Fold this protein.
Amino acid sequence: MFKKLFSILTIFLLLIPHVIIPDMVVKAETLGDVERELEKYKADYQANKEMQQQTKEEMQDTQNKIAKANNDIVVANNEIIALQKEIEDLNKEISKKESEIKEIMNFFQKSNGESAYLEYMFGAKTFTDFIYRMAISEQMTDYNKRLIKEYEEKIEENNKKTEELGSRKTELQKMQQNLEVLYKSLQTDLNSYIEDQVSIEEEIRMKEDAIAMYKEMGCQTDDEIDICTREKLPPTTELFRPLVSGYVTQEFGRPDSSTSYLYSIHGAIDISTYDNNTPVYAAGNGLVVAISRNQSCGNNIVYIQHVLYSGETYTTAYWHLRRVLVDEGDVVTKDTPIGIMGGAYYDYDECAMGAHVHFVVATGLYLQDYYYISTLNSRRINPRMVVNFPDYGVEWEDRLTKY
Ligand SMILES: [Zn+2]
């Protein structure tokens, strides 16, 4: 009975957190859990690669179809042009024949007054001659009339063909347009696969680093991470400003004007100082758990986690660092310089338009309370809640004075 209840409970517990917030998936308890998570990422990576390949093949196929449609349109166009030329020639022939008929008539008329035609025929000496004369003129006009009729029929036929070719051309153009739309959407798919791939690669790299770090710290596969790293995570009294002197340049929670990502909400506090080569310090005693390097948005980012004496746990992140002075697994104190402030225009960082530190504070510990560094976002809090900063724009001259 107990066993049954237990398994029902387990199923229930397994289901719920997955459904609610993926980031908060059951607390990673052991190093083995993290390793399994890493394997899942590697499988995702493989699947992503396959999707990319498949999409590329579809794109090639679409390109071929577009090229074929193009070719068919050219062929139809040439045929239309040829038919029109033929119609033109036929029209010329018709008017030629018509003027020939007119000329024959004129000849008889002009040769001897208005009644020349009749005179010509009636001028026949014999009845046979009369028949002959009449036949000649009739044959000539009949022959030409027959030709004109033939030409007209041919023109009609050509017009019909032109019309058919015209609608075929329209069909082909429509098909070509649809193919172009398909191609664009495949391109968009491919781009998003490539973007995903980059972030999956980054997660894989960071997880591999973290696993190596925890192993170095003495964690075994079945060890719970927070227990085997406890000694290494020096408790800290509180968190301090990461710059010796500086001022707040952007508050937390406002629409972010410092990036090109419109509508994004600023999930950090931005701080800066006049010195472009200023060291950035760890906000408090802690452990460097992850480092993202050379990100197009954020450049070098250091993640440090802290356990306060009160038992509260936080992760702090320092964005746009021009240089990083620590390694993953380093135990730092609040006086350890962890990097050099960057974000200046020459730092090639899409998300910074001036030297500053984008200082993030999130609750919880990486791989213990949350799995993904990239989705630490949902745990961000206003840094002012745990670190003392003077009002916006007001300068501070040391890290300890309270404002
Ligand atoms: Zn910022």
User: Anything to note?
Assistant: Helices lie at 2-20, 31-111, 116-122, 127-216, 225-228. The pocket of zinc ion is lined by residues 250, 258, 266, 268, 270, 358 (CB under 6 Å). The domain at 52-193 is CATH 1.10.287.1490 (Helix Hairpins). Residues 127-216 form the longest helix (90 residues).
